Amino acid sequence: MAGGFLTFSPEYFLTLMEILSFIHSIWFIIILLVAGGTFAYTTGKLTLAAAVTGVISALLIHVGAGLPALLMLTTFFILGTAATSYRKEYKLKMQLAE
């Protein structure tokens, strides 16, 4: 049954180099940034304006300074969000948070 329904051809599969080049492409970064901004917005960590501004700022930082700067910014955002959320009820009770 040559050329049948279950015949696979190597041209349909991505090579490792194609996958790696996609990961380093700007589209992959945009997809990750939009997903991160959407997640932060839907979980209530950011307002819509803050999420959009954050995605645009992160994209500009990536274009201007590269992936290491973007990773540092991402780490700072995650740690800052975690520190703000840590023991929030206590901070509200002590009137240290809004």
3D architecture notes:
The chain is built from five helices and no strands. The protein is mainly alpha-helical and 98 residues long. The chain has one domain. The longest helix has 19 residues, at 67-85.
Q: What would the keywords be for this entry?
A:
mainly alpha; 69% helix; 98 residues
Radius of gyration: 20 Å
Shape: elongated
Straight-line N-to-C gap: 69 Å
Structural class: mainly alpha
Number of helical segments with 4 or more residues: 5
Q: How many strand elements?
A: 0
- Estimate the helix proportion, in percent: 55-70%
User: Which whole number gives the mean pLDDT?
Assistant: 84
Detail the poorly predicted runs. Answer: none
| Secondary-structure element order, N to C | HHHHH
Please report which band the strand proportion falls in: under 5%, 5-15%, 15-25%, 25-35%, 35-45% or over 45%: under 5%
Q: How many strands, what sense, and barrel or not for the largest sheet?
A: none
